Amino acid sequence: MGKILDYVRWRGDLTLDREPFNSLDAGLFAAFAYLPFDSSVKGHTLEAATKRLIQKKTLIHSDKVEAQLINLSDRYKNMRFLDWSHLSQKKPPVQFTAMTIELDPQTILVAYRGTDGSMVGLNEDVDMSYQPEIFGQSVAADYLDKIAQTYPDKQIYTTGHSKGGNFAAYAISAVSPKIQDQIIKAYSFDGPGFMKETYDQLEFQRAIPKMLTYVPEGSIFGMMLDHPERVIVVKSKMKHLMQQHNPLHWEVARNSFVMAPCLSNASRIIRSTFISWNTKIPREKREELWLAFFTALESQKITDARQLTTNKIRGAIQFSHAYLSLDPKTRLIANEIVSDITTTARQYINLPFLNHTEHLEPLGNDSSKGPIVDDSYDGS
Description:
Elements: H1 4-11, H2 23-32, H3 46-55, H4 61-72, E1 80-89, E2 94-104, E3 107-112, H5 119-128, H6 135-150, E4 155-161, H7 163-174, H8 177-180, E5 183-189, H9 196-199, H10 202-207, E6 211-216, E7 230-234, H11 241-245, E8 252-253, E9 256-257, H12 265-280, H13 283-299, H14 306-309, H15 312-324, H16 328-346, H17 356-359
Parallel strand pairs: 3-4, 4-5, 5-6, 6-7
Antiparallel strand pairs: 1-2, 2-3, 8-9
Helix pairs in contact: 3-4, 6-7, 12-16, 13-15, 13-16
Protein name: Esterase
Region (Disordered): 360-380
């Protein structure tokens, strides 16, 4: 089976008037949002912008291949950047990047970037685990509102990966009904979902039919919260956590993703652990812990997650110093949370290595036809 970049190689000669925009295009642009463009791309074609990016010679190999393929593809190269926007701040934590691309004279695409590895971005991700709504979601909605009002005669797709997928879905729920009517579809690729307080709102319910989420069969991040919208499970043979999370590594055939039989045992078990953690540990305790922990990391001058992983020994020392700098009360909360997670996981510790047909009832691969998970945060 191929992957999204193979799809670009296979069918990149087919312009949108010959082969309409599809989920693989949306997945490609969700990944494209991570490329290090800046506001100078506004008004330029994708061909011109990617050529300039490649000439800088700072791209990692996989990003360079993606940029080169788009640069050479008749399907994408004449599309045009209408906007590029970025915001990063510590309080409240926001790591936000979005771009708007004119697909054809009638249609535009708003693509939201996911977490970029900065501690601000990770802090924002953690906030999602105990706050029904975070400030970055309102920034995403304001951005969509601005774009839609600037181009009132255009139809709009939104897309994003991980946190960006959450933003792509949330944004269409938070704009006016008039702007919602401009939206064709909101694509989320392994986005973490939403809390019940959010998706129970009437505005969100109105937007749900236009939301579509894809998750890999080994999804971790996408299982953090609930998904009231349609969810499709996609095949991915990748074993590494971040590779499984990356839509460029999911399997495709012709012009669509290849569906998996269901979520893996490991994915479903980890989801149960998330639910146990987020329902048994009071929200205020988790908030107290994470606020203290990120303050401690900042005191160690850690601004990027790669500082903890590039040099593992140094990273472990910095992490330990941050942990030990927490006050005793907060360390006790941290220990309670770790103990709770461990207890939940221990109940199922052998299941990921066993055949799911013998130990976990297989569920569906498309939530419109049947559940892909059998638990939720409200217990239903």
